[in-house]
What we know:
single chain; 446 residues; alpha+beta; Thrombin, subunit H; Pdz3 Domain; six-stranded antiparallel beta barrel; six-stranded antiparallel barrel; 11 helices; 25 strands; elongated
Amino acid sequence: MLNLLLPLLFAPTAPFAAQEPSLDDYLRGMSEAELYERRRTAESLVVQKAIPAVVYIETGKQVQWRDFFGQRQSTLRRGSGSGAVIRPEGFVVTNYHVVGGADRITVHFEKTIDPHPYVAELVAAVPQEDLALLKLEASPNRIFPTLELGTSSDLMIGERVLAIGSPLGHTHTVSMGIISGLHRDVPVTDPNQPRQTLRFEDLIQTDASINFGNSGGPLLNINGELIGINSAVNTAAENIGFSIPVDRVRRVLEEQLITPGSYSAWVGFEVSEDDELIVTGVAPGSPASEAGVRPGDRVLAVDGREVAELGAWRLARLGLGPARAVRVLLGRDGQRREVSFLTWEKARGLLWERVGATFRENAVGRRRILEIERLREGGPAAGIGLDRGDLVDAVQPASGDELARPWRVGTRAELAGLVGRLKPSTAVEVQVYRERELLEGVLVLD
């Protein structure tokens, strides 16, 4: 028995398995650059690309109310949300419920990128789609970082996504998840009108953490493309958020947010409704006409920024405020030339175009009244003998029109609002005072 045990006791043992190197061993020979590069992930690259174009939005609204004693009080109601810059001129898309009804809108970028706060103007909104478009007030030469619009037509359930926003005031917070579902129909209560519930259809569902303050911020795919605008969260559950698909955002932008009706300034010429951007008409006597814009010219750039298609032209127009100097680069027969002129207030331009006159707002006693300050040669107003200094007392569209009743108009906006609702060639009775004498005439709108 002893002879049998001895070989077992003294038999050579198997060598120990080689130990795997520790993390410290693995990292020890790497340079600082290699260590940094090892930390990079697809998600961190998306954040690095997108953060400069994501904004934190603060809003303020004065709310009037009466206290227990019937005294009128005023309170500043504050709100916040997020948004995404989609055009270098400073256009920001966000949710309407973030900015609707606000008296003041302030936009902040990530502080290490741009510490300067910007006042923003609500230039267009479609409340039923919960989308709004803001324009940042900045120098015309200021170029803002933008997010690239992707597509929501090929989204896959399970693909990775990132949400960036400012939940509960924690600005530029990043969360990661997947697309949990598509084509969701969700009822949403408007925080500005708690009794009103809207129903949004065909939303993207994600488990990327979305909280109050994320509204209006971007949902991004792993390539850093904007695929949705974060809009709603299910407060009864965890990690159930919803985003408006970017294809719908793009459609609303093109069809409703950047239509000619949204423009606040009048430039005095129109272009073709295609990507050729050919000038089709110029209003006689307009600043554009006097600067040399002619039918047949092709619009190439506005304020030094190229406009290569209709959408870019409409956004450029949307960014022009009234009484602002604008530079337009035109092309014709291979030649280029730049013209400069002042834009007009939208109401002033419309009245010049349709009525053939500009008006000054005056006060007579307690009443506001419009005084003719300039007439267009050959225009409707000049054609019936109206003159500078005439005071417009009332206007009345011809009988048979649904607006056929006397209208007293004391501001350009009121008269322009009425004229804008009337069809071309509508006859309008006009009553004016000239040296205290009441005169009447009928003009036909252009």
